[in-house]
Structure to design on (209 residues):
């Protein structure tokens, strides 16, 4: 987890255009991460388009969270997620994807795991870390590291997620959701029961991001 420092202001449309260009680039994960840190730093929190998107998500009743797709391309997907206090996005993976998670408002805890394999209907996971993200703080996931995670808002929160690439159709069968495993220490291996695949993003309480 890192804290973002101040940067030149950027509107939401500019942020999405830059994310699209980044997704189409040949940069490796560490270079993309550095670029996304700079972009998230520059994103204006009071940009009217961003405020409008947040208000749209907060308008209906929801139990845990609501998500809105801001950008979807064959190389990049950007999601805006609002979470109520105590809201949970259950443990799930992102097969063969790089992901960047930035808290824009509130506070959210991210528990991250490596996936080691599967025994029947049980997933073998290695606990990596549990980080609490406040405004301007971020974490990431890699195809082979921290690729399984769970999010819980400890207060009402707004989060922006960037995935490169988005979930590709040929990887859909690799998607997994898990029941919460027992508490673990860093590097400890735990077993977590695999549950049915997630439903569409944006559905209250049942999707994954």
């Amino acid at each position: 987890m890192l804290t973002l420092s101040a940067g030149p202001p950027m509107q939401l449309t500019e942020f999405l255009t830059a994310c699209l260009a980044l997704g189409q680039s040949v940069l490796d994960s560490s270079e993309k991460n550095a670029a996304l840190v700079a972009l998230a730093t520059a994103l204006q929190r009071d940009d009217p388009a961003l405020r409008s998107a947040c208000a749209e998500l907060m308008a209906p009743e929801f139990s845990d969270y609501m998500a809105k797709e801001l950008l979807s391309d064959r190389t990049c997907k950007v999601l805006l997620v609002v979470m109520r206090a105590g809201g949970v996005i259950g443990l799930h993976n992102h097969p063969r994807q790089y992901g960047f998670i930035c808290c824009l408002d509130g506070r959210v805890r991210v528990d991250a795991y490596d996936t080691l394999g599967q025994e029947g209907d049980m997933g073998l996971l290695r606990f990596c870390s549990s980080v609490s993200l406040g405004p301007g703080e971020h974490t990431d996931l890699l195809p082979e590291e921290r690729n399984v995670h769970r999010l819980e808002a400890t207060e009402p929160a707004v989060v922006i997620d960037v995935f490169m690439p988005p979930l590709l159709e040929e990887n859909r069968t690799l998607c997994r959701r898990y029941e919460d495993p027992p508490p673990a220490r860093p590097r400890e291996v735990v077993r977590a029961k695999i549950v049915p695949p997630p439903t569409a993003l944006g559905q209250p309480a049942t999707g994954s991001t």
Summary: The first helix runs from residue 12 to 23.
